[in-house]
């Protein structure tokens, strides 16, 4: 079964790029609070954001999922 790993990956890749939650949110048009909720697994980003997130974080959409 595939496990959703979005929270861990967003936080990991965002930290590697030294981008704050505020800066990251501004890049994709959401609030820092939304980013915080994603990283704490309180909710997930809309699926339409995945390609944008992957592009900004220099990763693949597949990186957000574990097999």
Structure description:
This protein is mostly helical and 67 residues long. Helix content is 52%, strand content 6%. The chain contains 4 helices and 2 strands. The chain has a two-stranded antiparallel sheet. The longest helix has 11 residues. The protein is globular and about 35 Å long. The mean pLDDT is 90.
Shape: globular
Uncertain runs are none
Terminal Cα span: 6 Å
Taken as a percent bin, the fraction of beta residues is 5-15%
Q: Tell me the helix content.
A: 40-55%
The average pLDDT is 90
Radius of gyration, taken over Cα atoms and rounded to an integer in Å: 11 Å
What structural class do you assign from the helix and strand content?
A: mainly alpha
Query: What's the tally of helices?
Result: 4
Enumerate the strands of the largest sheet in spatial order, edge to edge or round the barrel: 1-2
Count of β-strands:
2
| Secondary-structure element series | EHHHHE
Largest sheet: 2 strands, antiparallel
């Amino acid at each position: 079964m595939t496990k959703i790993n979005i929270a861990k990956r967003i936080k990991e890749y965002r930290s590697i790029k030294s981008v704050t939650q505020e800066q990251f949110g501004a890049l994709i048009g959401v609030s820092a609070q939304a980013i915080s909720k994603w990283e704490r697994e309180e909710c997930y980003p809309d699926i339409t954001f995945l390609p944008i997130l992957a592009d900004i974080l220099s990763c693949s959409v597949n990186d957000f999922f574990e097999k």
